[in-house]
Amino acid sequence: MAVLYQLDDVQVVLASTRGAPPALDGVTLHIAAGERVALVGSNGSGKSTLLRVLHGLLAPSAGTAQRQAGLKQAMLFQRPVLLRLSVQNNLALALWLHGMGWHAARHAALEALAHAGLQGVAARSGRQLSVGQTQRVALARALALAPEVLLLDEPTASLDPHSKRLVEATVQAYGGTTVFASHNLGQVKRLATRVLYLEQGRVLADLPVTEFFDQNRLQAHSAAAAHFVKGEAIS
Ligand SMILES: Nc1ncnc2c1ncn2[C@@H]1O[C@H](COP(=O)(O)OP(=O)(O)OP(=O)(O)O)[C@@H](O)[C@H]1O
Protein backbone atom coordinates (compact mmCIF):
# COMPACT_ATOMS: atom_id res chain seq x y z
CA MET A 1 0.00 0.00 0.00
CA ALA A 2 1.26 3.47 -0.88
CA VAL A 3 2.36 5.51 2.11
CA LEU A 4 0.51 8.84 2.04
CA TYR A 5 1.90 10.39 5.23
CA GLN A 6 5.15 9.82 7.07
CA LEU A 7 5.76 11.59 10.38
CA ASP A 8 9.08 11.22 12.17
CA ASP A 9 9.53 12.38 15.75
CA VAL A 10 7.15 15.29 15.22
CA GLN A 11 6.93 17.89 17.92
CA VAL A 12 4.53 20.83 17.84
CA VAL A 13 4.87 23.73 20.23
CA LEU A 14 2.03 26.18 19.68
CA ALA A 15 3.22 29.80 19.73
CA SER A 16 0.73 30.94 22.35
CA THR A 17 1.61 28.13 24.74
CA ARG A 18 5.37 28.46 25.02
CA GLY A 19 6.40 27.04 28.34
CA ALA A 20 3.40 24.64 28.28
CA PRO A 21 3.95 21.01 27.24
CA PRO A 22 4.06 20.49 23.45
CA ALA A 23 0.74 19.85 21.68
CA LEU A 24 2.48 16.95 19.92
CA ASP A 25 5.52 15.26 21.35
CA GLY A 26 7.64 12.72 19.48
CA VAL A 27 4.97 11.42 17.10
CA THR A 28 6.24 8.86 14.60
CA LEU A 29 3.78 7.11 12.31
CA HIS A 30 2.84 6.51 8.72
CA ILE A 31 -0.57 6.26 7.11
CA ALA A 32 -1.14 4.19 4.01
CA ALA A 33 -3.76 4.52 1.28
CA GLY A 34 -7.05 2.90 2.22
CA GLU A 35 -6.65 3.12 5.99
CA ARG A 36 -9.38 4.58 8.16
CA VAL A 37 -7.58 5.87 11.21
CA ALA A 38 -9.36 7.03 14.36
CA LEU A 39 -7.67 9.43 16.76
CA VAL A 40 -8.92 9.07 20.31
CA GLY A 41 -7.93 10.62 23.63
CA SER A 42 -9.08 13.19 26.17
CA ASN A 43 -9.65 16.87 25.44
CA GLY A 44 -6.35 18.54 24.68
CA SER A 45 -4.48 15.30 23.95
CA GLY A 46 -3.42 16.54 20.50
CA LYS A 47 -5.94 15.04 18.06
CA SER A 48 -6.78 18.30 16.28
CA THR A 49 -3.13 19.28 16.22
CA LEU A 50 -2.23 15.97 14.55
CA LEU A 51 -4.96 16.46 11.93
CA ARG A 52 -3.61 19.95 11.22
CA VAL A 53 -0.08 18.64 10.78
CA LEU A 54 -1.32 15.94 8.38
CA HIS A 55 -3.25 18.55 6.39
CA GLY A 56 -0.22 20.84 6.27
CA LEU A 57 -1.88 23.67 8.19
CA LEU A 58 0.71 23.39 10.95
CA ALA A 59 4.42 22.76 10.49
CA PRO A 60 6.26 20.68 13.10
CA SER A 61 8.46 22.66 15.50
CA ALA A 62 10.85 19.69 15.32
CA GLY A 63 10.92 16.42 13.39
CA THR A 64 9.51 15.95 9.88
CA ALA A 65 6.05 15.53 8.38
CA GLN A 66 5.95 14.32 4.79
CA ARG A 67 2.95 13.90 2.54
CA GLN A 68 2.73 12.18 -0.84
CA ALA A 69 3.30 14.79 -3.53
CA GLY A 70 0.10 16.16 -5.03
CA LEU A 71 -2.14 14.37 -2.52
CA LYS A 72 -5.73 15.66 -2.68
CA GLN A 73 -6.98 16.17 0.85
CA ALA A 74 -10.11 17.72 2.30
CA MET A 75 -10.65 18.56 5.94
CA LEU A 76 -13.86 18.94 7.89
CA PHE A 77 -13.27 21.17 10.89
CA GLN A 78 -14.90 20.78 14.27
CA ARG A 79 -17.15 23.80 13.73
CA PRO A 80 -17.32 24.27 9.97
CA VAL A 81 -18.21 27.68 8.62
CA LEU A 82 -20.53 28.27 5.69
CA LEU A 83 -20.66 31.65 4.00
CA ARG A 84 -23.72 33.87 3.71
CA LEU A 85 -24.41 32.51 0.22
CA SER A 86 -26.80 29.84 -0.93
CA VAL A 87 -25.73 26.34 0.08
CA GLN A 88 -25.25 25.54 -3.62
CA ASN A 89 -22.92 28.51 -4.04
CA ASN A 90 -21.01 27.56 -0.88
CA LEU A 91 -20.11 24.28 -2.58
CA ALA A 92 -19.60 25.90 -5.97
CA LEU A 93 -17.17 28.39 -4.46
CA ALA A 94 -15.03 25.60 -3.01
CA LEU A 95 -14.90 23.89 -6.41
CA TRP A 96 -14.19 27.18 -8.21
CA LEU A 97 -11.32 27.87 -5.80
CA HIS A 98 -9.93 24.49 -6.85
CA GLY A 99 -9.93 25.54 -10.48
CA MET A 100 -13.33 24.56 -11.85
CA GLY A 101 -15.23 27.03 -14.04
CA TRP A 102 -18.15 28.73 -12.28
CA HIS A 103 -20.92 27.22 -14.41
CA ALA A 104 -19.54 23.68 -14.05
CA ALA A 105 -18.95 24.30 -10.35
CA ARG A 106 -22.60 25.30 -9.81
CA HIS A 107 -23.70 22.15 -11.60
CA ALA A 108 -21.30 19.88 -9.70
CA ALA A 109 -22.38 21.52 -6.43
CA LEU A 110 -25.97 20.58 -7.06
CA GLU A 111 -24.98 17.02 -7.92
CA ALA A 112 -22.93 16.71 -4.74
CA LEU A 113 -25.86 18.00 -2.68
CA ALA A 114 -28.26 15.59 -4.35
CA HIS A 115 -25.82 12.74 -3.73
CA ALA A 116 -25.86 13.60 -0.02
CA GLY A 117 -29.65 13.92 0.04
CA LEU A 118 -29.34 17.66 0.63
CA GLN A 119 -30.92 19.05 -2.54
CA GLY A 120 -33.73 20.43 -0.38
CA VAL A 121 -31.42 23.02 1.20
CA ALA A 122 -29.52 24.00 -1.98
CA ALA A 123 -31.20 27.40 -2.24
CA ARG A 124 -31.10 28.18 1.48
CA SER A 125 -28.52 30.52 2.96
CA GLY A 126 -25.51 28.71 4.39
CA ARG A 127 -26.07 30.67 7.60
CA GLN A 128 -29.63 29.50 8.11
CA LEU A 129 -29.11 25.80 8.64
CA SER A 130 -29.30 23.68 11.76
CA VAL A 131 -26.07 22.40 13.29
CA GLY A 132 -26.70 18.96 11.79
CA GLN A 133 -27.43 20.37 8.33
CA THR A 134 -24.38 22.62 8.48
CA GLN A 135 -22.21 19.63 9.29
CA ARG A 136 -23.68 17.53 6.48
CA VAL A 137 -23.33 20.39 3.96
CA ALA A 138 -19.72 20.96 5.03
CA LEU A 139 -19.05 17.25 4.58
CA ALA A 140 -20.69 17.33 1.13
CA ARG A 141 -18.50 20.34 0.29
CA ALA A 142 -15.37 18.42 1.33
CA LEU A 143 -16.41 15.35 -0.68
CA ALA A 144 -17.31 17.42 -3.75
CA LEU A 145 -13.57 18.02 -4.12
CA ALA A 146 -13.14 14.25 -4.66
CA PRO A 147 -10.33 14.03 -2.11
CA GLU A 148 -8.01 11.05 -1.83
CA VAL A 149 -7.93 11.65 1.92
CA LEU A 150 -10.68 12.91 4.16
CA LEU A 151 -9.59 14.47 7.46
CA LEU A 152 -12.39 14.88 10.00
CA ASP A 153 -12.22 16.62 13.35
CA GLU A 154 -14.99 15.20 15.52
CA PRO A 155 -17.45 15.07 12.65
CA THR A 156 -20.49 14.21 14.77
CA ALA A 157 -19.86 16.14 17.98
CA SER A 158 -23.11 17.78 19.13
CA LEU A 159 -25.22 16.08 16.44
CA ASP A 160 -28.42 14.23 17.28
CA PRO A 161 -28.49 10.45 16.65
CA HIS A 162 -30.22 10.83 13.27
CA SER A 163 -27.72 13.38 11.90
CA LYS A 164 -24.90 11.33 13.40
CA ARG A 165 -26.04 8.26 11.45
CA LEU A 166 -26.31 10.26 8.23
CA VAL A 167 -22.79 11.62 8.62
CA GLU A 168 -21.40 8.18 9.45
CA ALA A 169 -23.16 6.67 6.43
CA THR A 170 -21.66 9.35 4.19
CA VAL A 171 -18.16 8.72 5.53
CA GLN A 172 -18.64 4.97 5.06
CA ALA A 173 -19.90 5.45 1.50
CA TYR A 174 -16.89 7.67 0.72
CA GLY A 175 -14.68 4.66 1.41
CA GLY A 176 -11.33 6.40 0.78
CA THR A 177 -8.47 7.01 3.18
CA THR A 178 -9.88 8.69 6.27
CA VAL A 179 -8.37 10.11 9.43
CA PHE A 180 -10.86 11.22 12.05
CA ALA A 181 -10.83 12.42 15.64
CA SER A 182 -13.67 11.09 17.74
CA HIS A 183 -14.87 10.94 21.32
CA ASN A 184 -17.42 8.32 20.35
CA LEU A 185 -15.92 4.86 20.68
CA GLY A 186 -18.96 3.23 19.08
CA GLN A 187 -18.28 5.35 16.02
CA VAL A 188 -14.60 4.41 16.15
CA LYS A 189 -15.63 0.73 16.12
CA ARG A 190 -17.99 1.29 13.20
CA LEU A 191 -15.70 3.36 11.00
CA ALA A 192 -12.04 2.72 11.81
CA THR A 193 -9.59 0.07 10.69
CA ARG A 194 -6.88 1.41 13.01
CA VAL A 195 -6.93 3.40 16.25
CA LEU A 196 -4.38 5.79 17.70
CA TYR A 197 -4.66 6.71 21.37
CA LEU A 198 -3.10 10.06 22.29
CA GLU A 199 -2.27 11.46 25.68
CA GLN A 200 -0.47 14.78 26.22
CA GLY A 201 0.66 14.92 22.62
CA ARG A 202 2.07 11.40 22.56
CA VAL A 203 0.75 8.36 20.71
CA LEU A 204 0.55 5.68 23.42
CA ALA A 205 -1.24 3.03 21.35
CA ASP A 206 -1.46 2.46 17.59
CA LEU A 207 -3.40 -0.73 16.85
CA PRO A 208 -5.77 -2.39 14.38
CA VAL A 209 -9.33 -1.72 15.54
CA THR A 210 -10.02 -5.29 16.69
CA GLU A 211 -6.92 -5.29 18.89
CA PHE A 212 -7.71 -1.87 20.28
CA PHE A 213 -11.08 -3.06 21.52
CA ASP A 214 -9.66 -6.25 23.01
CA GLN A 215 -9.05 -5.15 26.63
CA ASN A 216 -6.28 -7.70 27.26
CA ARG A 217 -4.36 -6.79 24.12
CA LEU A 218 -4.81 -3.09 24.70
CA GLN A 219 -3.73 -3.43 28.31
CA ALA A 220 -0.54 -5.16 27.14
CA HIS A 221 0.23 -2.20 24.84
CA SER A 222 -0.83 0.68 27.04
CA ALA A 223 -2.43 0.62 30.47
CA ALA A 224 -3.40 4.27 30.00
CA ALA A 225 -5.29 3.54 26.77
CA ALA A 226 -7.05 0.55 28.38
CA HIS A 227 -8.05 2.75 31.30
CA PHE A 228 -9.41 5.39 28.90
CA VAL A 229 -11.53 2.87 26.97
CA LYS A 230 -12.94 1.40 30.17
CA GLY A 231 -14.05 4.85 31.28
CA GLU A 232 -15.85 5.72 28.03
CA ALA A 233 -19.32 4.53 27.12
CA ILE A 234 -19.41 2.67 23.80
CA SER A 235 -22.63 3.52 21.95
N1 LIG B 1 -4.77 27.72 19.07
C1 LIG B 1 -4.13 27.25 20.13
N2 LIG B 1 -3.27 27.99 20.81
C2 LIG B 1 -2.61 27.52 21.87
N3 LIG B 1 -2.74 26.27 22.33
C3 LIG B 1 -3.58 25.47 21.71
C4 LIG B 1 -4.33 25.90 20.58
N4 LIG B 1 -5.08 24.86 20.16
C5 LIG B 1 -4.82 23.84 20.99
N5 LIG B 1 -3.91 24.19 21.92
C6 LIG B 1 -3.34 23.31 22.98
O1 LIG B 1 -2.67 22.23 22.34
C7 LIG B 1 -2.91 21.01 23.02
C8 LIG B 1 -3.53 20.00 22.07
O2 LIG B 1 -4.83 20.46 21.67
P1 LIG B 1 -5.72 19.77 20.56
O3 LIG B 1 -6.77 20.75 20.19
O4 LIG B 1 -4.85 19.23 19.50
O5 LIG B 1 -6.37 18.57 21.38
P2 LIG B 1 -7.60 17.65 21.02
O6 LIG B 1 -7.19 16.27 21.41
O7 LIG B 1 -8.03 17.86 19.63
O8 LIG B 1 -8.72 18.17 22.02
P3 LIG B 1 -10.34 18.17 21.89
O9 LIG B 1 -10.77 16.75 22.12
O10 LIG B 1 -10.73 19.07 23.02
O11 LIG B 1 -10.68 18.71 20.56
C9 LIG B 1 -3.76 21.37 24.21
O12 LIG B 1 -2.93 21.51 25.33
C10 LIG B 1 -4.40 22.69 23.84
O13 LIG B 1 -4.65 23.45 25.00
UniProtKB/TrEMBL annotation:
Q: Which PROSITE patterns match?
A: ABC_TRANSPORTER_2 (PS50893)
| Residue ranges occupied by any ABC transporter domain in the UniProt entry | 5-225
Transmembrane feature ranges: none
For whether the record's keyword set contains Cell membrane, the answer is yes
Kindly name one Pfam family recorded for this protein. Answer: ABC_tran
Annotated Gene Ontology MF terms? Answer: ATP binding
SMART domains on file: AAA (SM00382)
- Kindly state which keywords UniProt assigns to this record, in alphabetical order: ATP-binding, Cell membrane, Membrane, Nucleotide-binding, Transport
Judging by the UniProt lineage, the source's domain of life is Bacteria
* Protein family (similarity comment): Belongs to the ABC transporter superfamily.
Which PANTHER family does the UniProt entry name for this protein?
ALIPHATIC SULFONATES IMPORT ATP-BINDING PROTEIN SSUB (PTHR42788:SF13), TAURINE IMPORT ATP-BINDING PROTEIN-RELATED (PTHR42788)
Question: In its UniProt entry, what is this protein called?
Answer: Tungstate transport system ATP-binding protein
State the organism of origin.
Answer: Rhodoferax saidenbachensis
